[in-house]
Amino acid sequence: MARLELINLNKTYSPKVIPVKDISLTVENNEFLTLLGPSGCGKSTTLRLIAGLEEVTRGQIMIGGEDVTNKRPGDRNIAMVFQSYALYPHMTVYENLCSGLKLKKVASEEIKRRVTEAARVLGLDEGLMSRKPGQLSGGQRQRVAVGRALVRSPHVFLLDEPLSNLDALLREKVRADIKELFAAQGVPVVYVTHDQTEAMTLSTKVAVLDQGYVQQLDSPERIYSHPATQFVAGFVGSPQMNLLTLRCEGRNAMLGDFGIALPGFVDSVLPNVVLGIRPENVRIARLEDTQTVTGKVFLVENLGMHYLISVRVDDAQGNSPTVRALVPLDQPWSNERITLAIPPESIHWYDHQTGDSLAKKKMGRC
Fold first, then answer.
1. pLDDT greater at residue 18 or residue 2
2. Residue 299 dihedral angles phi and psi, to the nearest 5°
3. Which parts of the sequence belong to the ABC transporter domain (predicted)?
4. Which CATH number fits domain 4-228: 3.40.50.970, 3.40.50.300, 1.20.120.530, 2.170.190.11?
5. Alpha-carbon span 97 to 151, nearest angstrom
């Protein structure tokens, strides 16, 4: 058992290429941390720094209280599962599973015990053990790659987009297996993905990265319900959150022709603010709703259980901001004029310049 700590971790390739910038975080035993973000945000580089496959420019990596920043990968007692599986094509499944243990000169009986246990946990039956990777399906190859990591009994597991090569149905099945499997290991797990569904379903903690910085480190529930920055709000959630830059007039932010009341914590003179609200929180207005906007539906998308409608809000200045809402499948909405409720309790407010949450800053007034 060992906790993983990253302390002010930096990686610089050149003055203009700095993929990892002052990342500090801790992953405890039994925690599953996902590094989530778009391509180029620094998540895979961070994983490679932890593994020792990249050299740290500045900062520290601690495993179990020991500084491993300058240790070789083989001396860190970590196990990594790669996106490409990285199996030896000329070896059988059994030989792939035990290859790392043989390099460490583990006793033959112990190797057999560990491989047998990993195969049992992963559902790799005896008939597969003599096959080579080219004779396996994508899901089976992924299980072998995970099994090779399991048999090492490492202090930390690292997984770099391990499901990206699988089709959608198989990805869902293997994702469930991974969640159950690593919950039983009792060691820190760091998982890299750009897929928010994987991050939200697998993790106990999520670090959302952008341009080398951690934008927010929190539970999946908090990441979704209380996004700390405009970037997190826009990146996490499907359909994507409505993010609208609005001009301020007194104590209102103007959404087209309609005033949206500003909360008390927005209390400095700002020309603009960003309003964020998820489509599932926007609804067809009822008589009791006091904060509403009216417009015309110009796009209807069938999502199976709901329609996602896009509404051009009435605007005398001709800007016609668009609000998207999830609505029932009970009528054809195309070209309808409708009134939408914008519930105040569902709105997130962001600084137009910095993208930071105004609720978190507790400063700024229009």
1. 18
2. -150, 135
3. 4-236
4. 3.40.50.300
5. 7
